[in-house]
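Exercise 7.
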Amino acid sequence: MRKNLKEARQKAGMTQQQMADKLNISLRYYQNIETGDRTGEFSIWDTLEDITGIHQRKLREIEENHLDLKENQQIR
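Solution. The predicted structure, written as tokens, is:
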């Protein structure tokens, strides 16, 4: 999960739907970006940086637990 992105969205007082609308993308696509399942286009990250005021490198960080969880799910 991209914890920094989720926290930045919440700090901005926005729901996932509101963020998706602002980015002109579907809710599902935004959710996939926030969970780390999709990378997202550069233009999306530029806009996210503008909206949150946080450098996109920080927003893009994925917690290691997310990767471990995905690997464990694939093993089963």
